[in-house]
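Q: Hi! New to this. If I give you a protein sequence and the SMILES for NAP, can you show me the bound structure?
A: Yes, paste them in.
Q: Okay, here:
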Amino acid sequence: MLNHPFHLRGKRVLVTGASSGIGRAVAIECARAGAAVIASGRDQTRLDATMARLEEGAHDSFAADLTDDAQLAALAAHCGHIDGVVHCAGVDGVTPVRMLRAAFLDRVFDANFMAPILLTQKLLYQKALRNGASILYVSSIAAHTGTVGVGPYSASKAALEGLMRCLALEVAPRSMRVNALAPGLVDTPLVNEDRAWLEEKAASYPMGIGRPEDVAYAAIYLLCDASRKVTGTTLHLDGGNAWT
Ligand SMILES: NC(=O)c1ccc[n+]([C@@H]2O[C@H](COP(=O)([O-])OP(=O)(O)OC[C@H]3O[C@@H](n4cnc5c(N)ncnc54)[C@H](OP(=O)(O)O)[C@@H]3O)[C@@H](O)[C@H]2O)c1
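A: Thanks. Here is the predicted structure of the protein with NAP bound:
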């Protein structure tokens, strides 16, 4: 029992978007699983609230806007050597194509695609990721489905998954793994402002919508050594939504 691989003891893990929602839960649960966590987000006050909830360990936090090149580079430099990264930071991006503007598309792609990919590039180039490290992107079921008005967001997540599969082959010789999580609706500030809308949407989830912890537990599996041969794949966490 003591030797099973379902833990993160001895691993150092960077979590972006750790100041809220899914990223906060990933940071908290990774710490509970034994990891030393580097928690990143834009807002230091919200990051401090996450830090206050981490089980004791060699954790630290680093505030950075990942759409800013200098701040992204500073975070990568801060990390030292790490065994895993969970790219949770992201924004929504809902507008019908007829109303779309280039600046809107840029905002969505900068946060949801460019930031996680350029951060990965920096971490790889600096050799911050140890051999055997796990790289994990938080995508969405929106990358696999069509929903009126959700085009920019869906496209940014589909792009992320496309690159994920190619990167998985590039880093495989170093025993590094690259995967994505595709949650359905999860009760976080990204989507829960309009409770009536959320409850209406929840009706299409046979098992109900997710909690941030549900995503965190899946992240732990893909970060830990139990999944050491799992790469280039997307784990769907949709409570049966795809089958309705
Ligand atoms: N909630 C859902 O239903 C759902 C479903 C599928 C996928 N997802 C994905 O899950 C991820 C987390 O979403 P969430 O629901 O937890 O949302 P959330 O509660 O709004 O949290 C978003 C996080 O991303 C950070 N962030 C946003 N833009 C950033 C930037 N430019 N630089 C650095 N950090 C930035 C925020 O930092 P600040 O706190 O500093 O603003 C915050 O920590 C996103 O990628 C989202 O697309 C969510």
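A: The longest strand covers residues 129-138. Let me know if you'd like me to explain how to read the tokens.
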